[in-house]
Design a protein that fits this description.
By secondary structure, the chain is an all-alpha fold. The chain contains 13 helices and 2 strands; from the N terminus they run H-H-H-H-H-H-H-E-E-H-H-H-H-H-H. The chain starts with a helix and ends with a helix. The N terminus is likely disordered.
C-alpha cells in the first residue's frame, strides 16, 4: 500500500518534471528561432548596405549636379565677357577656355550618369554589371576621353599664353581662330583615339572597385602587354601635359615679371624721358592687366590640375611598373580617382572667382582696410 502510494507520488513528480521540461523547451524555442537567422546576416554587408553605398551614391549625385551647375555658370560668365575679350584680341584664349569648360561639363554629365546608374543598381540589387557589357565599355571609354581632354586643353591654353606673352607680334599675326579650332579638334581626336585603342587591340575595359566604374586594366598582376602599354600611355600623356603646362606658365610668369620691373623703372625716369614713353605705358597698361588676369587664372588651373590629377596618374604609372594588384592599391586608386574628379568641379570656379572685377574688389578692399589701419595708427600717435 505504501509502496503504491510512493510509486504514484514518484510518477506524479516524474510527470511534473517532464511537463516542466517540455514547457521550458517550448518557451525557449521561440528565442532560438529568433536567433537562427542572425548568423546568416553578415554584419559587414549590412553596414555596407546602410552606410557605404548610400554615401557613394550621394557623393556621385552631388559631384554631378554641383559640377554641372558650376560649369554652366562659368560658361555664362564667359559669354558675357566675350565682347571684352574680342576687343582685346584674346579670342584664342576664350575659345580654349570654352573648350575646357565644355569638356568638364561633358565629364560630369556622361560618366556621372553612368556612375549614378551603377550605384542605383547596387542599392536596389539589380543585375550586376559585367566587364563585357556595352555599358562598361562605354563607361571606360568616356572616362579616358573626358579625363584626357581637360589636361590637353589646359596644356594648349598654357602654350597659347606663353606665345602671346613672349612673342606678341607673332601671336597677333599668326594665331587665328581657325588655328585654335584646328588645335581643339586635334586634341579632341587624340583623346578619342586613346579611348578607342582598347577596342583596336582587342582588350576590354574592366570593372573597378567598388564595382561602380570601369577603366583600363590596371590592377591585375599578370596583365598582357597591350593592357600595360595602354595604361602607361594614358599616364605618360597626362603627366606630360601637366609638366609642359607648368613649364609654359613659369616662362610666361618670368616674362610678365620682367615687364613689370621694366615698367616700374620707366616710372623712375626723369620727366623728359617719361613724357616720351607715356603713351606707350598708357596703351600697354590694359594689355598687361588683362594678361595678368589670364595668367592668374591659368596658373590656378594648372595648380589644381596637378594637385587633383597627379596622384591618379602617378599611381597608375607605379602600378604598371610594379605589377601590383593588392587591396591597398585598389583603395588608393579609388581615393585618387575621387581627387581627380574634383578637378572638373574646381576649374569653373577659377573663372567665377578670379575675374578682374572680383580681384579688383578684393584688392580695393584690402587697400582700403590697410589705409584705415594706417590712418588710425597715425591719429593715435598724434593724440
Amino acid at each position: 500500500m505504501h509502496k503504491s502510494v510512493k510509486l504514484s507520488l514518484s510518477g506524479c513528480q516524474l510527470n511534473y518534471t517532464c511537463n516542466s521540461l517540455q514547457m521550458t523547451i517550448k518557451m525557449a524555442t521561440p528565442s532560438l528561432m529568433m536567433l537562427q537567422p542572425v548568423p546568416k546576416i553578415n554584419s559587414s554587408d549590412q553596414h555596407n548596405n546602410s552606410t557605404f553605398k548610400p554615401s557613394g551614391f550621394g557623393l556621385s549625385c552631388f559631384t554631378m549636379i554641383f559640377g554641372t551647375i558650376s560649369n554652366l555658370t562659368a560658361l555664362g560668365l564667359l559669354v558675357k565677357s566675350r565682347v571684352r575679350f574680342r576687343r582685346q584680341s584674346k579670342t584664342p584664349f576664350l575659345m580654349l577656355t570654352i573648350a575646357l569648360l565644355m569638356a568638364d561639363l561633358g565629364g560630369h554629365l556622361i560618366p556621372g550618369a553612368c556612375a549614378v546608374y551603377l550605384h542605383i543598381g547596387q542599392l536596389y540589387k539589380m543585375q550586376s554589371l559585367q566587364s563585357d557589357s556595352n555599358l562598361c565599355q562605354f563607361f571606360g571609354a568616356t572616362m579616358v576621353f573626358f579625363g584626357l581632354c581637360p589636361l590637353l586643353f589646359g596644356c594648349a591654353m598654357a602654350v597659347e599664353r606663353c606665345v602671346a606673352i613672349t612673342q606678341p607680334f607673332f601671336h597677333a599675326s599668326m594665331i587665328t581662330v581657325t588655328h585654335i579650332q584646328r588645335a581643339v579638334l586635334l586634341l579632341s581626336s587624340l583623346a578619342l583615339v586613346m579611348s578607342l585603342l582598347p577596342f583596336v587591340f582587342e582588350t576590354k575595359y574592366t570593372i573597378q572597385q567598388p564595382n561602380t566604374w570601369c577603366f583600363l586594366k590596371i590592377h591585375t598582376r599578370k596583365t598582357e602587354a597591350n593592357d600595360t602599354n595602354l595604361a602607361l600611355a594614358f599616364s605618360v600623356l597626362g603627366l606630360s601635359a601637366l609638366i609642359f603646362s607648368q613649364l609654359c606658365n613659369i616662362l610666361s610668369g618670368l616674362v610678365l615679371l620682367h615687364g613689370r620691373m621694366k615698367s616700374s623703372s620707366i616710372h623712375k625716369m626723369p620727366p623728359v624721358h617719361y613724357a616720351r614713353r607715356a603713351s606707350t605705358i598708357t596703351s600697354s597698361s590694359s594689355f598687361c592687366t588683362l594678361d595678368v588676369e589670364m595668367m592668374v587664372q591659368l596658373a590656378v588651373i594648372t595648380v589644381i590640375s596637378c594637385v587633383c590629377w597627379s596622384p591618379f596618374l602617378v599611381h597608375i604609372l607605379v602600378m604598371q611598373l610594379n605589377q601590383s594588384g593588392s587591396a591597398h592599391a585598389k583603395d588608393c586608386t579609388l581615393l585618387s580617382l575621387r581627387m581627380a574628379s574634383w578637378n572638373q568641379i574646381l576649374d569653373p570656379w577659377v573663372y567665377i572667382l578670379f575675374r578682374r572685377t572680383v580681384l579688383f574688389r578684393v584688392c580695393c578692399g584690402l587697400y582700403t582696410q590697410r589705409h584705415r589701419d594706417t590712418e588710425a595708427k597715425r591719429l593715435k600717435v598724434v593724440t
